[in-house]
Design goal:
Helix content is 18%, strand content 31%. The protein is of the alpha+beta class. The longest helix has 11 residues. The model has no long low-confidence stretch (mean pLDDT 91).
């Protein structure tokens, strides 16, 4: 399966393709110096039950200690990440923040995670692209 609104959906606990490294490099090149956010992301930043979520800088998103949890690619634009969920742990001592960032550097949504939450799969593994057999 692995489809989500006409996108191929990948999760780190299920499968990332061998081309993931080069895909991330290409995606990073699309990020501008300024990170912007959608109205939805702004609402999420102000209304999260764990408090205000900070707007990260480009360098904070690209910190090597961060982890990409999920990413999405269009079937007609393979090997190009359209959006990626970055889990950032160095902005707060109590929480990690997850930011879904689209090409060009727009945060589309975000949320806070407890440090002990290891971003388990909350949906069926079948909702993601599976490793080749």
């Amino acid at each position: 399966m692995g489809r989500h609104k006409d996108l191929n959906r990948y999760h780190t606990d299920v499968y990332f393709p061998a081309s993931f490294g080069s895909m991330v490099l290409e995606f990073i090149e699309t990020l501008g110096d300024d990170i912007n956010l959608t109205d939805h992301a702004a609402d999420e930043m102000y209304s999260d039950k764990r408090g205000m979520i900070p707007l990260p800088t480009r360098s904070e998103i690209l910190n090597p200690s961060n982890k990409i949890i999920e990413f999405y690619e269009r079937p007609d634009r393979l090997n190009r990440i359209q959006k990626a969920a970055f889990r950032i742990g160095h902005l707060n001592e109590a929480y990690d923040y997850t930011y879904v960032v689209a090409r060009g550097g727009v945060v589309v949504t975000c949320w806070a995670n407890d440090k002990g939450d290891h971003h388990r799969l909350t949906e069926s593994r079948e909702n993601y692209i599976q490793p080749p057999s």
